[in-house]
Amino acid sequence: MANQLISEMGLPKSIANVFAARNIRTAKDALSLTEFDLMELVDMGLTEVTSVLVHISERVSPPHQTARSLLQQRIQNEQLAGHLPTGLKGLDEALFGGIPFGVITELVGPAGIGKTQFCLKLSLLASLPTRHGGLDAQVIYIDVESKFSSKRLIEIGAQSFPEIFHMSGMAQEMAGRILVLRPASLAEFTESLQQIKILLLERRVKLLVIDSMAALTSGELEHGASKINPLGWHISFLKSVAELSRIPIVVTNQVKSQSSDEAWRYNFQVGTRRQDLEDTSKYDSHLIAALGIHWAHAVTIRLILETISGERFIKVAKSPMSPALAFPFSITSSGISLLNDDGIEVVGQEISTIHCHGHSEIIHSDTLQFHRQ
């Protein structure tokens, strides 16, 4: 817009010729000068120069939009982009359809909370036929910590979709649509990215899962690599893959401990006993997501999985469309199940706070290694 020619802006020919004679050929040339500079350069009065600049500005400025039109455009784009439903009604409604295409969605939580269970269910849903609510597609699953279990995947499928998995050969077919890669280091993961890119082009891949990103960087830190944004290039690559391929990318992230003078607690938890709230010694030290602030800015959706007083919660901690909500859940033979579909609103510091009361494994903030409490 700034390089649009003055001669194409509908100005009187006499004025356009004067500007051209003074080597003012584009909107940028004209708008880079002050009104008094232009008066002297083109020998015009202030009123005429001001009128010309207003005309040029109106031609090159983007049209204004109302908040309503922006919202309608956003909803339309979301509908065109699509979502992968999680099968969790309350969460899908909060996310306007499920895990969105074209962006990175992150699952954060302590070890054993259910992140891999969530990823297995998503992988299954993406591979299911469309008539059963799936994407009828293939999945690339980056299994960094060797937690992927075909047996558990089939168990979830048989319990969730018995009409499909009890058909002869269907369990094997669904499992065969999930391509599992197991890089042992960040270097191997980097080398596999080109292979992933080719697979996205050659096959009908509709979901990329990385379980987990923090485990990749922890190996780098063990070998003395720089702690400063080790995933800088990978962040850009994954964001571009999500946007260009229009697929959902789901990554898991671990937590690390951070010293705190205060025991943090939910102020919205249903059924919490008063004595539990008063006994702050029962709560863990403050936890934060691993990988740092650069990674946090790269993800569009952040879901925190946590426990407090023996109850598990999945919390929408970051979303451009959804309010911060928490849903109590359990893990059953059919995977993750919400205890109710009515999300509990989260406010203030609780939005980003992570609890793991009842879990015995956390990651130390300095080494990103697992330590038993």
From TrEMBL:
<dbReference type="InterPro" id="IPR020588">
    <property type="entry name" value="RecA_ATP-bd"/>
</dbReference>
<keyword id="KW-0067">ATP-binding</keyword>
<dbReference type="InterPro" id="IPR003593">
    <property type="entry name" value="AAA+_ATPase"/>
</dbReference>
<keyword id="KW-0233">DNA recombination</keyword>
<dbReference type="InterPro" id="IPR027417">
    <property type="entry name" value="P-loop_NTPase"/>
</dbReference>
<dbReference type="InterPro" id="IPR016467">
    <property type="entry name" value="DNA_recomb/repair_RecA-like"/>
</dbReference>
<keyword id="KW-0227">DNA damage</keyword>
<keyword id="KW-0238">DNA-binding</keyword>
<dbReference type="InterPro" id="IPR030548">
    <property type="entry name" value="RAD51B"/>
</dbReference>
<dbReference type="InterPro" id="IPR058766">
    <property type="entry name" value="HHH_XRCC3_RAD51B"/>
</dbReference>
<feature type="domain" description="RecA family profile 1">
    <location>
        <begin position="80"/>
        <end position="255"/>
    </location>
</feature>
<keyword id="KW-0547">Nucleotide-binding</keyword>
<dbReference type="Pfam" id="PF26169">
    <property type="entry name" value="HHH_XRCC3_RpoA"/>
</dbReference>
<keyword id="KW-0539">Nucleus</keyword>
<keyword id="KW-0234">DNA repair</keyword>
<comment type="similarity">
    <text>Belongs to the RecA family. RAD51 subfamily.</text>
</comment>
<dbReference type="Pfam" id="PF08423">
    <property type="entry name" value="Rad51"/>
</dbReference>
<protein>
    <submittedName>
        <fullName>DNA repair protein RAD51 homolog 2 isoform X2</fullName>
    </submittedName>
</protein>
<dbReference type="InterPro" id="IPR013632">
    <property type="entry name" value="Rad51_C"/>
</dbReference>
